[in-house]
Design goal:
By secondary structure, this protein is of the alpha/beta class. The chain folds into 3 domains: 64 residues, no CATH class; 111 residues, Aspartate Aminotransferase, domain 1, CATH 3.90.1150; 249 residues, Aspartate Aminotransferase, domain 2, CATH 3.40.640.10. The chain has 19 helices and 17 strands. The strands form 5 sheets. A 7-stranded mixed β-sheet has the order 4-12-11-10-9-5-8, with helices on both faces. Strands 13-14-17-16 form a 4-stranded antiparallel β-sheet. A two-stranded parallel sheet has the order 1-15. Strand 2 and strand 3 form a beta hairpin. It is globular, with a radius of gyration of 28 Å.
Length: 459
């Protein structure tokens, strides 16, 4: 029997907010989000049904309001599956912390800690003491201090040593890092006057020596960590720059950028200058990052001569750039892992992912290709492939790591990539040669990934 035509427009067959609040489907949202938020969400949901000319039951309105609230309640800073093939992806938070670092940071969040308190004397201490001794041991430096990031480390050094004076740098080392952040801009903010020497591709020892004058405060080397100039090139080694500086009674600053505490040759990568090497070559100050090759939390290190570190620590800017107790706790735990280098690849995620065997990654790609294909259906061609990963975050731009992943071809790929970003745990891949590539180097929890992938809503 056909339903009776009541003559009521569909846009009028809508529940009141009070009716929807009483629906069983509203109970969970009320308990989680509260009455005020639920009322606002119901009004918005009912208004949307009305604008579309659609009818709805009290249950429909309650479910729609619950979806609104749950979506709004999702944190902006969300966990994602990094299948880009870039291990230290700047936009995805760079280094994953070791479990020891996570535990240490959690403990520091839960309780009071001896941050600036000397337990041996019962008097005020220095927060840098938490990591000073271990940094000196790992680098061979006389002293060390820690700030927010490497850009802050460079800024602080230049301001403390070179403000109102001149700093000499090779033109080929005036780098720009992510977000159009340029070394000349950092130097200007630090209050030091940049003296460019040499050309983009060639700088000689005589260029450094010839530029030194009465207003020179220091000589600076900058590691071009995010690019390389090849061909007809010439640069002066850090050791030689240090010798030129010392012959004139000047300090030499070596900005390593990413910085590494260990030789990466054993991980299948080209040699990268270590911090200990930079110190041994004569640099009076060395700056480097904590959240890149070192594999720790975002921090910037300054290690070097004790007198210069003390001068830097007296600078009022140091307080503005210092790190909090959580990061110091995570940093100390990360640095302690380096005291046992034989276990480093096992315990430090960055090194584990760099050293991950290709055969293991290929096996992951082969296992997940089938389930992905089942979810995507006949519209897309899915196959395991060989590909290449990179370290990322400006580290070792010419070094690639053999890897494996899953290639997805079909249309529309842009819409599919967007749908993957809408998953409960967004999946981030890369578009390459007409395919969406999911590089499996950083995929370690396959069951969680596949369970998440099953929620995909195809475009």
């Amino acid at each position: 029997m056909a339903p009776e035509d009541t003559g009521i427009s569909p846009r009028r067959r809508l529940p009141s907010v009070d009716e929807a609040l009483k629906a069983p489907e509203a109970a969970a949202a009320l308990a989680k989000h509260g009455r005020t938020a639920m009322v606002d969400a119901l009004r918005a949901a009912i208004a949307e049904f009305r604008a579309k000319g659609e009818g709805a039951s009290a249950a429909d309105a309650a479910n729609a309001a619950t979806m609104r609230l749950d979506k709004a309640d999702r944190p902006r800073l969300r966990a994602v599956h990094n299948l880009t093939g870039t291990i230290l992806h700047t936009n995805l938070g760079r280094a994953l912390l070791a479990e020891a670092a996570i535990d240490a940071a959690t403990a520091a969040m839960r309780s009071a800690v001896a941050l600036e308190y000397d337990l041996s004397t019962g008097k005020r201490g220095e927060r840098d003491d938490v990591v000073r001794e271990i940094l000196c041991k790992l680098t061979g430096a006389e002293d060390a201090t820690v700030v927010n990031n490497n850009a802050a480390a460079v800024l602080l050094c230049l301001n403390a040593i070179g403000a109102g004076k001149e700093t000499i740098v090779s033109r080929g080392e005036l780098i720009e890092i992510g977000g159009a952040f340029r070394m000349p801009d950092i130097m200007a903010r630090a209050g030091t006057n940049l003296v460019e020497i040499g050309t983009t591709n060639r700088t000689h020892a005589k260029d450094y020596a010839g530029a030194i004058g009465e207003r020179t405060a220091l000589l600076m080397k900058v590691h071009t960590s995010n690019y390389r100039i090849q061909g007809f090139v010439k640069e002066v080694s850090p050791r030689e720059v240090a010798e030129i500086a010392h012959a004139r009674g000047l300090p030499m600053l070596n900005d390593l950028g990413s910085g590494t505490l260990i030789d990466l040759d054993g991980y299948g990568l080209a040699h990268e200058p270590t911090v200990a090497e930079a110190v041994a070559e004569g640099a009076d100050l060395v700056t480097f990052s904590g959240d890149k090759l070192l594999g720790g939390p975002q921090t910037g290190f300054i290690v070097g001569k004790k007198a210069l570190i003390e001068q830097i620590n007296r600078n009022p800017m140091k307080r503005a750039l210092r790190v909090d107790k959580m990061r110091l706790a995570a940093l100390e735990a990360t640095l302690r892992l380096y005291l046992n280098p034989e276990k480093l690849a096992e315990r430090l995620p960055t090194m584990r992912l760099i050293a991950r065997p290709v055969a293991e990654i290929e096996a992951v790609a082969a296992r997940i290709a089938g389930p992905i294909g089942q979810v995507l259906g006949a519209r897309f061609a899915v196959a395991p492939i060989q590909c290449e990963s990179q370290v990322g975050s400006g580290a070792m731009p010419l070094s690639v790591l053999k890897s494996a992943g899953v290639s997805i071809k079909g249309r529309p790929l842009d819409a599919l990539a967007a749908a993957l970003r809408e998953l409960p745990v967004p999946v981030i891949g890369r578009l390459e040669d007409g395919a969406l590539v999911l590089d499996c180097r950083c995929l370690e929890d396959e069951p969680a990934f596949l369970a998440n992938f099953a929620n995909l809503v195809l475009p």
